[in-house]
Amino acid sequence: MLMKRVRQELDHEAVRSGRKTNANMSLFSPETAAKTRVKHRFGGVCDDPLEVLMRDYRFTVDELASLLSMPVTNIEARIRDDEAFRLDSQAEWKLHDILNLANRAREVLAETEKAVRWLHKPNRALGGATPMFRLATPEGIRQIEDVLESVSEGLPG
Q1: Angstrom distance (rounded) from CA 43 to CA 121
Q2: Do residues 130 and 121 lie in contact, with contact meaning Cβ atoms separated by under 8 Å?
Q3: What sign results for the dihedral spanned by CA atoms 73, 76, 80, 81?
Q4: Which of 50, 86, 132, 143 is the most buried (most CB within 10 A)?
Q5: What digits encode the pLDDT tens for the residues 85-96?
Q6: What is the DSSP string of 34-68?
Q7: Rounded to the nearest 10 degrees, how much is the dihedral formed by the CA atoms of 101, 4, 89, 63?
Q8: Predicted model pTM
C-alpha cells in the first residue's frame, strides 16, 4: 500500500508541475527523487528496499530482476502495487542483503552519489567486475564486503 501511495503522490506532483504527462510518468524519476527522500526522512516512513535501491542507488528493474533471479514482470508488479505481489522469502532476504551492502558502500564512501558510482563501475579488486553484478551470489557479496572493509581501512579498493 505504501509504494502505491508514494507512486500516486509522485505521479500527481509530476503531472501537476508539467514535468510529466500521464503517458510517461515514472515513479523513480530523477526530478522527484530528492523530494521523495526528504519527505521520507522527515515523515518517518519506512521505505521498501526495492524502492530505495531504485530511487537512491539507481538500480534498474532489469538489474534487480537479474540479481533476484526473477522475471522483470514480477518486479514491475511489486512496484505497481505493494500488496498485490510479494517476493518469496529468499528473494526478500537477498533484496535486504543488496540494500545493506549499498548502504554500507554509502557509509564507507561518505556520499550516496559516490556509492552509486562505485556500485556501477568496474572494480580492479573484483577482477574488473562491477560490484553490482557480484551481488548476485553469496561469494560475490563476501568479496564486496571485503573490498568495502579494505576501503574503510584506507586501502585502495
Answers
A1: 33
A2: yes
A3: positive
A4: 132
A5: 677 788 888 888
A6: HHHHHHHHHHT----HHHHHHHTS---HHHHHHHH
A7: -50
A8: 0.64
